[in-house]
Amino acid sequence: MATSITVRLNDSDVELPAGATVQSLVEHVGVEVRGTAVARNGEVAPRSQWPETRLADGDHVELLSVARGG
Amino acid sequence: MEDPLVIAGESFGSRLIMGTGGAPSLDVLEAALVASGTEITTVAMRRVDPASAGSVFDVLARTGVRPLPNTAGCFTARDAVRTAELARDALETDWLKLEVVADERTLLPDPIELVDAAEQLVDAGFVVLAYTNDDPVLARRLADLGCAAVMPLGSPIGSGMGIVNPYNLAMIVERAEVPIILDAGIGTASDATIAMELGCDGVLLASAVTRAEQPVVMATAMRHAVTAGRLAARAGRIPRRRHAEASTSSAGRADLIAPVRGP
């Protein structure tokens, strides 16, 4: 079994240990959690499920936060 | 005189909703939000930029202004619904300014995608404030399908052209069963006043303040403009007349003709 996976995060590739979760990815990036949301392969990954949501090699993750606009 | 704006059962003392887009800095934005007196402000969902210093979230926390996430930049119902779900997760609010535009050049709402998205989001339990064209039929359809507020444009986003079709706006207001909030196109204070005089329940604006030469001063102007327009609408304006009508009674006027005396 591979020891690492590569996920597409926004516009760049990120290498993570196999078994990484959405929670560990968010911590890896180091953003503030409040006001942040994650889409995994086009679907919302609810914050309450970040610790259990495992990422797979090749996943496409969009990490979004509240920004000025509108 | 209590006259709250009520949306989906919640009351707001200010009838001005300010957007956060276009401000030159977070400091200016914060000062403008405070000066505007707004209690609700729109925010967007965008990719995280770890390099950016400070956050609009801090501004909201300090000012106590409630965030209203939007779906700015969405061109399809699918994108808008996904963005709404992400915003709900990020901000823990069901409230949403729904925006589905047709193209970059006009930023005009795409009515087909808009209605589709509004239906899906209302069904999913969102409190939808729908940004729409100044089309009375479309406005009614959005209200009928359960939108909490309908927000017709005065003119295209960021154009500052004011209310180009006051007749349509008046028709929308006349038939309204949900709050009507003029959204987009405001250029200066008088535009906001006209919207309120036409019977709108509120005004949403961003660029008119954030891109003004002095945003904080313009925010203050907008606060007064919306209040003035609301009061004028409630007071009931005089009818327009073709000819003058003296405001001073002619009764009791002095006779200033000199008497004619003998030879």
Task: Give a quick precis of the structure.
The complex is a heterodimer of chains A (70) and B (263). Chain A has one helix at residues 22-29; strands at 4-9, 12-17, 36-40, 43-45, 60-68. Chain A is mainly β and 70 residues long.
- The largest beta-sheet of chain A arranges its strands as 2-1-5-3-4
* Strand coverage percent of chain B: 15-25%
Structural class of chain A: mainly beta
Query: Could you tell me how far the N terminus lies from the C terminus of chain A, measured between alpha carbons in angstroms?
Result: 47 Å
- Structural class label of chain B: alpha/beta
Helix share, percent of chain B: 25-40%
Q: How many helical elements of chain B?
A: 9
Task: Please bin the fraction of helical residues of chain A.
Answer: 10-25%
Oligomerization? heterodimer
Order of helices and strands of chain B: EEEHEHEHEHEHEHEHEHH
SS element count, helices of chain A: 1
Give the uncertain stretches of chain A in residue-range form.
Answer: none
Structural account:
The complex is a heterodimer of chains A (70) and B (263). Helices cover 11% and strands 41% of the residues of chain A. Chain A is mostly beta strands. Chain A has a 5-stranded mixed beta sheet, with helices on one face. In chain A, β1 and β2 form a beta hairpin. Chain A starts with a strand and ends with a strand. The model of chain A has no long low-confidence stretch (mean pLDDT 89). With 263 residues, chain B is an alpha/beta fold. Chain B is built from 9 helices and 10 strands. In chain B, the strands form 3 sheets. In chain B, strands 5-4-3-10-9 form a 5-stranded parallel beta sheet. A 3-stranded parallel beta sheet of chain B has the order 6-7-8. A two-stranded antiparallel ribbon of chain B has the order 1-2. In chain B, a hairpin with a 2-residue loop joins β1 and β2. The longest helix of chain B has 21 residues, at 215-235. The model of chain B has no long low-confidence stretch (mean pLDDT 94). Chains A and B meet through β3 and β5 of A and β4 and α3 of B.
